[in-house]
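Notebook entry, structure prediction.
Reason for the run: the old model in the group folder had no record of what sequence produced it. Starting over properly, with the input documented here first.
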Amino acid sequence: MKSHTVRTYKSAEKLAREDQLAWKIASVAVDDVPLDADVVEMIGNRIIDNAAVAAASLARHPVASARAQAQAHPYMPGATVFGLPAAARVSPEWAAWANGVAVRELDFHDTFLAADYSHPGDNIPPILAVAQHCGLSGQQLAKGIATGYEIQVDLVKGICLHEHKIDHIAHLGPSAAAGIGTALGLPTEVIYQAVQQALHVTTTTRQSRKGEISSWKAYAPAFAGKMAVEAVDRVMRGEGAPSPAWEGEDGFIAYLLSGPKAEYAVPLPERGEAKRAIMDTYTKEHSAEYQSQALIDLARRMGPKIGDLSRVKDIVIHTSHHTHYVIGTGANDPQKMDPAASRETLDHSIMYIFAVALEDGGWHHERSYAPERANRPGTIALWHKISTVEDPAWTRRYHSRDPREKAFGGRVVVTLQDGSVIEDELAVADAHPLGARPFARPDYVRKFRTLADGIVAAAEQDRFISCVERLEELRPDELAGLTFTVDAAKIGPAAARGIFDWIGGRGRTA
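New structure, fully documented this time:
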C-alpha cells in the first residue's frame, strides 16, 4: 500500500490529473490484478450475507416502497430484484435502489470502521445490477466488488467525515462508481470522472442518523449506489464532473471537511498489488449498530454473573469516542432513551441494546425491537440506569491501525444496590475475525437460512447458495441466479402509490 497525501489546491496551482485522488482511485480500478482465493471466498460470503438480511426485510414498508418504485421501471435486459422472479427485470439503477434498501434496512450486514464508518456490502447491489444488465461474467462481477470494497475501505481509513457531520455515503458513491468501472473494464478517464460525479452527488449530512432516525437511514446507501450507476452512465456518454472534486479550491476538503489547510493520507494499493481490503471488514451476528456487537456478546456473558437485574443500581459502559457520542449518552439524544422511538433509533441506542441483551441473553432482529419489548417496565427501568463514558484507551484502540489491537467494544461496570461491583470487558465481537467464533462460510450460510426461514423456500435457498459457490465460474446468463424468488404472499402488502404509478391523472391500478 502507498499513502497518498490529499489536500486543497488553489485553482492557479493547476493540480495535474495524475496527482488527484480521483485519478489515483481510477488507476487502482483499472489495475487488472488476479483475485486471491480467500478474497473470492469472502466476496461470496458477503453476497450471501446481503441476501440473508434482504430476505428478512422483504415485507418491511421501506423495502416494499423501494421495490414498487423499481417495478415501475421495467427494462430488458435489466437486473433482478430480491423477492421477485428472475425474469422480472428492472432498469439497473432502480434494481440497485431496491436491493440496496433491502440489504440496509435491518442494519445487519458487514461493517468497516476506521477514521470513518462504513458498510462496504452496500457496494454489492449497484455493481451486481450493472453486471446483470450488461451481461458480465461472475469473474468480472467479483473483480468489480473487490474494487468497491478496496476503495471504500481505503477512503474510510484516510478521511473522517463524521466529525464534520457528513454522512458516510460520501465514500460509498465513489467506491461503487470505481467498482462498476472495474467490472465493465472502463478506461481510467471514464472512472476518474465518474468517481468525482459520484462524490459530488452523494454528499449529505449525518442528520439521517441523528434525532428521530427515519427509513432514510436504509435508503441513503441505496441512493449512493443508484447515483453511482447514473454517474458512470453519464460519463460513458462523454459528460464530465466537478474537478478536482476532493482537492478543488471550492471543493470537498476545503469547505465540507477540515478546510483549505488540512491534509489527509489515503492508502491505496500500488500497481500490481492485490485488492484485499474486503478481508479487513467484518459482518454482524446481531442486527444492531456494529459498536454494539461486542457489547451484546458481553451482556450475554455478564447476565448470569449479575443474576437478578432488579439489584442493579447503575451500569456504566467505558468505551470509545464513537460509541459514546454516536450510540451512547454522549449523543445527547433523548430519543435514545424513549420507548416510543423508532427501530432505527433504538438500533443506535447502546443503552437500550445492552439492557435488552442482559435481560434476554441475546438479540433478535425483530423481537428485540418490537414496541411491546421496548415498553416493558422492567426494561425501561434498567435501560435508564445505563450510561456511557469515553475512555481514551478504548478510543485509541478503536483508531489503531494494528488489527490485533483495534477494538470496538468496551468495559462494563455494574454497581449493585448493595455497593458490590461486577465488571468485565470485551474488545471485539465473537463473530469478528479475531473473536471467539470468527464467521466463516458455514456461518454465513446459517445466517442466510435462519433469516430466510419461512420466507424463501428451501429449494430456492439451496439453488442460491449453489450459485454463489460457483461465483467465478458463472456465465453472463447465470448471473441472474444471484438473487432469490419468493411467493408473492411473502413480500407483504403493496406499497402506497406514488408519482411513478400515476397514469392519466389517477393512480395506476394494481
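Summary: The longest helix spans residues 37-57.
The old model has been moved to the deprecated folder.
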